[in-house]
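Structure, all two chains, one model.
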Amino acid sequence: MPTITIREALNQAIREELARDESVFIMGEEVAAYDGAYKVTKGLLHDFGPKRVIDTPITELGFAGLGVGAAMVGLRPIVEFMTFNFSILATDQIVNSAAKMLYMSGGQFKIPIVFRGPGGSAFQVSSQHSQAMESWYAYFPGLKVVMPSTAADAKGLLKSAIRDDDPVIFIEQERMYGNKGEVPDDPDFTIPLGVADIKREGTDVTIVARSLMVPVALKAAEQLEQQGVSCEVIDPRTIRPLDIDTIVESVKKTNRVVLAEESHPICGINAEISAEIMERAFDYLDAPIKRVSGADVPMPYAKNLENLAVPDVEKIVAAVREVAYLD
Amino acid sequence: MATKVIMPKLSPTMEEGQIARWLKKEGDKVAMGEPLAEIDTDKATMEMQALANGVLRKILINEGESAPLGQLIAVIGEANEDIASLLSEAPAAAAPKQEAPAKKEEPPPPPPAQQSAPPQQAQAAAAGAGSVGNGRQAAAPPSSGRVIVSPLAARMAAESGLDLRSIQGSGPGGRIVKKDIEAAIAQPQPAPAAPQRYPRPVEPGQPAPAAAASAYRDEPASQIRQTIAKRLVTSLGPVPHFFLTTDIEMDRAAEMRKGINALDPELKISINDIIIKVTAAALIQHPEVNASYQDRFVRYYEHADIGVAVAIEDGLITPVVRAANQKSLSQIAAEVRELAERARSKKLKPEEYTGATFSISNLGMFGIDEFTAVINPPEGAILAVGAMTPKPVVRDNEIVVRQIMRVTMSCDHRVIDGATGAKFLQTFKKILENPLYLVV
């Protein structure tokens, strides 16, 4: 299997789906002539032309609405947000139109649209450009929310998202575009939405991590292995619908849970997962569920403070040791 | 560090205790394990032992006063230690009342800076001043208040029949966690200080030691059994009683008693002892009556542990003759006498008056001919025994005089049906009327 970056894996997914289905098209700021702000759409304008790869003005609400309309009449739009911070401007179209159209039209209009782009923290782009938005979108029935952490997951999940008949929020991680991994080159390779992946098997503590926190959790698990603690690392990959069964099965085995995320703790995805585990596996818990989340502050610009605001290996190791009653 | 003395749980049903007598005064030295006070529980007067070495610094609950489980009732500490922070935990009502007379015994007040320090700091300072004791609250023995336990550990303990109160938690705040249960399972259980809440089932074929509560097997309650239970409860209350009465000719039993006692007057076998023995024998023949309804299953006991109702000054108590089916009449007689004496002086230990499988209440000595008794849950039945009186009866078409005793069995209909109870009573009657059956 070729080893490629997450950026290249996403590019392959879009390219293959554009080639496979001519109702698929992509639009967004700088996606065409500039090859994408993060070069995810590199070469697509050249290969598929301006009808399929479309530059938009800086009008997130406008082109999100355009996408919803296109989906209603049978196309499969991919809408790129330069970052998910800018999707805040488009939330009325995402939440009120895309998420609810199937329901409010009595099933007459399906909305097969993908809203994608990088989310979470980058490096020193400060408060307004370093936000993890997944709990916003996962809150609404009608939306699916996907967050890949490896190149293979990025490709397989994006292809499934494009083929899915429901609106999908597909959140990439700005810091991870250059991460490399093996990716199958089979054009029919897909990963179903709603299925978690056990990134590392273990017996003592379950760590649930997504997106940027997956490689961090895996590093923490390596360190903990040397300390005699065997960690199972689970990446839900899809936040909604959440594969809670895989998580609960793991908790029944390990009896202890650490939940890692870079987003804020309040009303976060970890809070939701924690409640689900408590309801479904209460009798299997040997310690309170421990959350490791981003700091409950707007992202600081200063490098040292930014480092403190994003969970790192040490924080996850400390949390695991706490639930394993080692300290 | 000073140690809190709290109202301990001294009986399975105790909710509060009354201080009958302090065995130490404020200022007395106490050693761990030494009797500190006598406490009246709902069942008996129990001795409370000191759980720390030091000086009994403060008594917060006076003789004759009561306190709920877990309430601070005294403080043990070093002679000159500051115990203000511990006393501040005492209920407001009790604390000020004690303050005035105690003041003269207290060491000079600490300097103002320390006085205003938060409690933890004051404690830390006291610990630093060379007193013994463990600085970590986590290592303190779990008090008899709430047991702190992880959900998993609680489930594991229930499944292996472990008493959580006998386990020391290693987690934060003394929380009992998985590894504590695993350690407890791995180690042979030390003799529990308190009775185990659930007697552990014994492997089939392995006889239970006679002193312990009877072994049992649990069988799922069938649907019909569960429906009967539900239906009858709606009609009669939590334990649906029904009653079976029969007359028993006691001439042969009385003769046997006379004969035995003639052999050795020291034996002092009573008719009631014979009834206990016969009940036990009949129960072993009818295990479906030696049973208890437990919500989703029916518990069948291996031995007949017979509760014998004894009237005491302010109520009644049922000391238990364990495995009466395995004991001789003389053993039963001696045991009942000894238990009844201690019951009257309120010296029974909780394990001596709980966990019977069947009870007998005898009001014959009060001249009662016939009565019904209330079942002591979770037992399945109770036998109410009336007086033995000469009565005319018809035998072979002749009117003759016989010693007749009327018994009424109250049955828990959730577990015992009419015919089941009747068959048991039939066997009981057959043996009691022909006590030679006891030796065949």
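Chain B has three domains: 3-133, 147-198, 216-439.
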